Model the fold of this input.
Amino acid sequence: MQLSIDLTDRNVLVAGSPTAARQAVRRYEAAGAVVHRLGSPAEARFVHLPERLFLVAAVEDGQPGWDAFLDRCRSTGIPVAAEPAAGPAGHVTLVGGGPGTGDLLTVAAVKALRDADVVFYDRLAPYQELPLLTSADLVDVGKKPGHHKVSQSDIEKLMVESALAGNNVVRLKGGDPYVFGRGGEEVAACVAAGLKVQVVSGVTSAISVPAAAGIPVTHREVSHMFTVVSGHAPLTEKEHHHLAGLGGTIVVLMGIGTLHQLAAGLRRAGMRPDMPMAVVERGYRPGQRTTIADLGTITSAAAGCSNPAVLVIGEVVRVAEANRNHAAAAADLDRLAASLLGS
Done:
């Protein structure tokens, strides 16, 4: 069912075993329906259909024998909708939510959210769209730079306790759980508690956010490698030298707070001051903005920038600028041609 549908005071019969149907029941109740239950085909032979029945939701529970009942419903003009069975209770799924837009959620991510009883989410995931994707209880455990609403150890404790209580738990994170997402720690906490846990990879912001700004992290004859760096803490001099010597593209996640140290460290390590650099803020979100400068001037150029942001250092930034210039020139020609034809 579409979670945005309004079924207030509509009579809905959910047909399926209690275990398989529990999430379908919750979804229809969340939509405002008056839910009636039917647990087995044997019961169906004797059931009296509720008056003014709006819909029968047939849960795919694997029990044989439902066809006769469903055919009886259809013959009396009652619509029948197929609903997936709930997954096994008491497990955890770490879900990569991508860069913050529901359009980049994977099919596996959408399925995990649909099957969840509880979702622990953070601010970099597409949390605004969760009411359309799940009827689960939603718990905000998001972090901001310098302020953690819930500590990492407490997040792990909440996940484990909820799953041990029999819930299907989703931990929804921005980007990919294993790219600076502390997913490894959360998996370890679940395994230590004896819980089944799986990871649904997400579209990492290290690639997708530059792409949103038209910047490829690799480009033929320009860059054949890219390095992804966390910007939460300043790098050491040794790390600056390694990065400067590698070549290719450098992508820094959440690096606004350490931008000054990074730019200065790379220059000290021998990277030329005119190396192009971009700061892409709020990728795929309202207010997305790209600031382009070079290594020598980026600190002042990006003075008004803030996280969430992705930094891109390398010649690929020029590729994006060239493409934008070509596109602008083509648009100008189109407008000129249109005006000439109009005259």
The chain has twelve helices and 16 strands. The chain has a mean pLDDT of 90. The longest strand covers residues 53-59. Residues 316-342 form the longest helix (27 residues).
